[in-house]
Amino acid sequence: xxxxxxxxSNWDNRxxxxxxxxxxxxxxxxxxxADVMAKExxxxxxxxxxxxxxxxxxxxxxxx
Length: 64
Description:
The structure is a single chain. With 64 residues, this protein is mostly helical. The protein has one domain (8-53). The chain has three helices and no strands. The chain has helices spanning 8-12, 23-40, 50-53. It is flat and about 40 Å long. 0% of the residues are buried.
């Protein structure tokens, strides 16, 4: 079974899930999000990506 949910690897490599109905719009959205992230020095946290989640601080830890 192929997983359809996003992952950090999909984001990093700009891979669009095969179930998306409009690949072009998805890629455009990803680029817009990347621009906002760069401007705001933000991080994208994909909570159901266990490999990424395991690297993040969880309560009661916090980020400054």
